[in-house]
Design goal:
The complex is a heterodimer.
Chain A (H helix, E strand, L loop, with lengths): L1 H17 L13 E10 L4 E12 L5 E7 L11 H5 L3 E2 L2 E2 L10 E9 L9 E3 L12 E10 L3 E12 L8 E3 L2 E4 L5 E2 L1 E3 L10 E3 L14 E10 L3 E4 L2 E7 L4 E11 L4 E4 L3 E7 L2 E7 L7 H18 L7 E5 L11 E3 L2 E3 L12 H11 L19 H16 L6 E3 L2 E3 L1 H10 L20 H20 L1 H15 L6 H16 L8 H7 L8 E10 L26 E9 L7 E7 L4 E6 L5 E8 L3 E6 L15 E3 L5 H23 L2
Parallel strand pairs in A: 1-15, 21-22, 22-24
Antiparallel strand pairs in A: 1-2, 2-9, 3-8, 3-12, 4-5, 6-9, 7-8, 10-11, 11-19, 13-14, 15-18, 16-19, 17-18, 20-21, 23-24, 25-26, 27-28, 28-31, 29-30, 29-32, 32-33
Chain B lengths: L1 H14 L2 H30 L7 H4 L3 H15 L1 H30 L6 H47 L3 H35 L5 H14 L1 H28 L5 H37 L8 H4 L19
Helix pairs in contact in B: 1-9, 1-10, 2-4, 2-5, 2-10, 5-6, 5-7, 5-10, 6-7, 6-8, 7-8, 7-10, 8-9, 9-10
The chains are: A alpha+beta, B mainly alpha.
Chain lengths: 664, 319
């Protein structure tokens, strides 16, 4: 056994050393490394080949079993967990009309360790998340020779993947291929302490309708053989393309320190190349979208620049933007390391920036998922939410806060506004906490994960200040890049940096914030209930002590005095510090601060001036406030806006009546 | 030449129909106010003393808009369905008014009086309604004939087309064909109404059929006139669009200017419609060589209605 172990370590070392490397030093622990040689047969939609998995046991446990993700089996039949959770509809339409060629699966043809032991005899599908015995998306393999602590095993796997008709991020349509989640992929063996685990164990979830992925870092050396007329793009760098005598070619891609490998093949791609500092940008677009390639590349350059300034440097040397054809929309808008798919559409005007928004978002996943490899199954908010937060920052920074997504025919919509409205527009924002594992949301997974997280991240930024927020995120990135942080790790960074920058102002830590917005289900709604101005009258009646009356003080003067008050109340469960701006009729303004904890608060004044208006949260820090209408009051309401919209409605109605009547 | 002559004749008719234009505008305004006044009150009640909607004065603000819809949408949304039902009702009202318009232009030689106008409205309402029903049926048939095969073709195209541009162009071509055919039906409808007035007939179907024949017999003439008539309204609409793109309501002064321009635009649409009718009447009577029979107010109710189909000067065979 010892001999075998030494042999395995040697093989691993020689595998890693033999490859031309990109980085001088490993950037990541390189736990799961793959060497693959596969062939795509376009007519059968099958990818078949071999992978040599070199896996390093970094734990102190002796590993007797390996667990593999077999994602493609989610599309094998109508009994998969993915199918049943998705209400039978997914990105890519219904399963109802699927023909035989449209289903997808992956199967192991052979599996052996370095000793030549056949491992297929002792493998079985397991269902760690539910009792669905028909689900085949997680495979358990018993090892003949266990992997000792801090040692390496090499497994040779022959596999066959039948790609599904494009569904949920992956598959084929006609002769177009986006090949992702396509090979038997080892799960993550979490060591004690990693993501606050108390003991070592496999973290290998089934493929659910709402879940994404979780994997260890490693190097990928992949050779793909396919008909020579296909144009290929993939994770990492293209090392070599070799023409074969049988009309095929073999393309070799190589990627270091990444958590996944995906690729695409199509005869129709047009390639556009550009560079940004050390990064080679490649846009693979449909010919009819060639005119949009510059918009895609510009968006990526802006994202690269912004991330470098506000989070950390992009460590890879390539980024590939993939533009799927309209008929393969199911694979659009998905991220893989150094490689992502976007959405474009022919003829979209420059001032409708949905394509920039998707591009910035998907690129951002290189950081949130790619470089900060969180567990997307269990804590999807850490990749989708954080990434959405950065998407809104980048889009609003480069294209205007109120115009970044739409600036068309008088309609203006900013990215953050759009994202926030997703959350505040929910019919029941209390149905689940953001920290819920992705497959356990009763509904609203996207809204809670993307929109709500981006909304409270922005609120956090506005409460602690952008500088501190950048400090938090930079610290988080620096400390956790190429690792697997969890929510508690992030909160620890927030607490540390906020304390460093603001002392104990926030109460020693920010747990109170996360308890409410991340782990809680409450909503935030403060209301400015009323403003009162009461003229101070001379006191009347009999007073034992004349000094008790106001008559001898200010009231006796010529000026009229008012007792005024502003009544604010907390309607929601979430408690946040609130500011209230009180404006008096002489132009004087007072900014009040309230801890927001009590159910209500009355601010009282006695001045020779009346309050003319008051605004709660005047700087819009409390972005989670689900009702902004009740945040302000003016004692003299201005109807100019109503007149404006009534006039608009009048005009539109007149034209509608005339238009319809003239048709007949 | 006959087309150009009719075009300018129509302009003259419209030019001399200021009172009728104003009446139609006021009626439209009253009609619209039945929605706008409660809409205004609801908006006022919903926004109350809140300052949250103030940003909307300067520009469209999505946050304010989305928040308003979230919390006040229930109060505002009923107005959408009310507006839709009212527009259906206004179709009938428009049919009613078109009788008055054509009567004034043709029978009264453009001499406007409220009494004559409403007499015309009342007299032609039923036959015009029947024409509208024919027109509606024809519009539905055309829409089915265009869109059912178009959608089927698009469905099959989706399986083979490499680019969505092909789908968009195909759909736009189908939609353009539908638009042209729908415009033809609108023209046939207009001429059918005119023929009914000119013939002093109540036979809607005959008029519709005669109009149909007239339209195809003098296809280039009628279509050319229609295209000519469309030029100014399109130019006017473009001008308004450019104005609205660059001039928004941000103050009291701009409110007055924008609302003024909008109402002039609406007034002009009504005026253009009278121009249309004037030109179409001129083209039809000119082409068929119809001599106007002057009918006095007194004769209207008794004599004119007794004119039989055979007595009129339009010979169906000539068409």
């Amino acid at each position: 056994m010892k001999t075998k172990l030494i042999c395995a370590v040697f093989l691993f070392t020689s595998f890693v050393n033999a490859q031309p490397t990109i980085s001088k030093q490993p950037l990541s622990p390189r736990i799961a490394n793959y060497q693959m040689d596969v062939r795509l047969t376009p007519s059968t939609k099958i990818v078949e080949g071999k992978e040599i998995l070199t896996w390093h046991n970094v734990s102190q446990d002796t590993i007797k079993e390996l667990q593999f993700h077999m994602y493609m089996n989610a599309f094998k039949n109508t009994k998969s967990t993915f199918y049943n959770e998705g209400g039978h509809r997914f990105r890519g339409g219904s399963y109802k009309d699927r023909k035989e060629i449209d289903w997808g699966w992956v199967k192991i043809l052979e599996m052996k360790d370095t000793g030549g032991n056949d491992l297929t005899n002792d493998m079985k599908y397991i269902h760690p998340d539910d009792d669905n015995k028909f689900d085949q998306t997680v495979l358990s393999v018993k090892l003949v020779n266990p992997v000792l602590p801090d040692s390496t095993i090499q497994i040779e796997i022959g596999f066959q993947t039948k790609l599904p008709k494009a569904v949920a991020r992956s598959g084929f349509v006609r002769d177009y291929f986006l090949v992702a989640q396509w090979f038997p992929k080892i799960g993550v063996y979490e060591v004690p302490g990693q993501r606050h685990a108390t003991k070592g164990g496999w973290n290998c979830h089934q493929y659910h309708a709402n879940t994404e992925f979780y994997a260890d870092y490693g190097n990928y050396d992949v050779k793909i053989t396919l008909p020579k007329e296909y144009i290929v793009g993939a994770t990492g760098i293209e090392r070599e393309t070799k023409l074969n005598t049988d009309g095929t070619k073999t393309v070799n891609y190589y990627a270091e320190d990444v958590v996944d490998f995906a690729w695409t093949a199509s005869k129709r791609y047009q390639i556009f190349k550009d560079e940004w500092k050390h990064v080679k940008i490649k846009a693979m677009v449909q010919p009819e979208h060639a005119g949009l390639s510059n918009r895609l590349i510009t968006a990526v350059k802006q994202a690269l620049e912004y991330y470098e300034q506000h989070l950390g440097i992009y460590p890879y040397t390539t980024v590939t933007i993939v533009d799927p054809p309209y008929y393969a929309g199911a694979v659009g808008g998905m991220e893989y390391p150094t490689f992502f798919t976007t959405f474009t559409t022919w003829g979209i005007p420059d001032n409708l920036r949905f394509i920039e928004s998707v591009t910035v978002h998907e690129f951002g996943h290189n950081y949130f998922m790619g470089l900060l490899a969180t567990n997307e199954f269990e804590e999807a908010w850490m990749d989708e939410g954080f990434n959405t937060y950065y998407e809104t920052r980048i889009m609003d920074h480069y294209y205007g806060e109120k115009t970044s997504v739409v600036d068309f025919l008088g309609f203006r919509i900013g990215d953050f506004e759009l994202m926030r409205s997703g959350y505040t527009g929910m019919t029941n924002p209390k149905v689940a906490a953001t920290a819920t594992p992705a497959w356990k949301f009763p509904y609203g997974y996207s809204t809670f994960t993307y929109s709500k997280t981006a909304t409270w991240m922005t609120m956090l930024e506005r409460l602690v200040g952008t500088e501190t927020m950048d400090d938090i995120m930079k610290t988080y990135y620096k400390r956790w890049k190429f690792k697997h942080p969890d929510g508690k790790d992030f909160i620890a960074v927030v607490n540390e940096v906020v304390k460093k920058n603001h002392g104990d102002k926030s109460g020693g830590n920010m747990n109170w914030f996360f308890d409410q917005v991340l782990y809680g289900t409450g909503v935030l709604d403060y209301k400015l209930r009323s403003i009162r101005n009461v003229k101070v009258e001379k006191d009347k009646g009999i007073f034992d002590n004349p000094a008790d009356t106001l008559n001898n003080s200010k009231i006796t003067r010529d000026t009229t005095w008012y007792k005024s008050e502003v009544f604010v109340e907390r309607l929601g469960e979430i408690q946040m510090p609130v500011e209230i701006l009180v404006h008096f009729d002489n132009g004087f303004e007072k900014l009040e601060r309230w801890n927001g904890k009590e159910r209500y608060k009355i601010f009282k004044y006695e001045k020779p001036h009346k309050i003319s208006w008051a605004k709660l949260d005047p700087h819009f820090k409390l972005t989670m406030d689900i009702n902004l209408e009740n945040n302000s009051l003016n004692i003299k309401p201005r109807t100019s806006v109503i007149w404006k919209y009534a006039a608009k409605a009048l005009f539109w109605l007149e034209n509608m009546f005339l238009g319809t009547s003239m048709m007949f | 030449m006959a087309t150009l002559k009719s075009y300018f004749k129509g302009l003259g008719t419209a030019w001399n129909s200021k009172r009728m234009t104003l009446l139609l505008y006021i009626l439209l305004l009253i009609f619209t106010f039945t929605v706008i006044i409660p809409f205004f009150s609801v908006l006022k009640k919903e926004t109350g003393y809140s300052m949250s909607v103030y940003p909307l004065l300067k520009n469209f603000d999505f946050t304010v808009y989305a928040d308003f819809l979230q919390h006040s949408g229930k109060a505002v949304k009923p107005f959408v369905s009310i507006a839709i039902w009212l527009s259906v009702f206004y179709i009938f009202f428009g049919v009613f008014l078109s009788g008055g318009i054509i009567h004034i232009i043709y029978n009264q030689e453009n001499k406007f009086s409220l009494k004559e106008f409403f007499a015309g409205c009342g007299n032609y309402i039923l036959p015009f309604l029947r024409i509208t029903i024919f027109s509606f049926i024809l519009q539905v048939i055309i829409a089915i004939l265009v869109y059912v095969p178009l959608m089927g073709y698009l469905d099959s195209l989706k399986e083979t087309a490499e680019s969505e541009a092909t789908l968009v162009y195909t759909f736009l071509t189908g939609a353009a064909i539908h638009l042209i055919l729908a415009a033809f039906v609108m023209l046939v409808t207009d001429y059918a109404k005119i023929m009914l007035v000119v013939n002093e007939s109540k036979k809607s179907f005959v008029s519709f059929w005669l109009s149909f024949k007239f339209f195809f017999r003098y296809f280039f003439r009628t279509v050319f006139l229609y295209v000519l008539l469309l030029i100014l309204p399109i130019a006017f609409a473009t001008g308004y669009f450019l104005f609205s793109e660059h001039f928004a309501i941000t103050s009291k002064q701009s409110f007055v200017i924008v609302v003024g321009v909008q109402q002039i635009f609406v007034l002009m649409r009504i005026w253009f419609k009278i121009w249309f009718y004037g030109s179409e009447i001129s083209l039809l009577t000119g082409t068929l060589g119809i001599q106007k029979q002057t009918v006095s107010n007194e004769e209207w109710d008794v004599k004119a209605l007794e004119i039989e189909e055979e007595e009129i000067e339009i010979d169906p065979d000539e068409l």
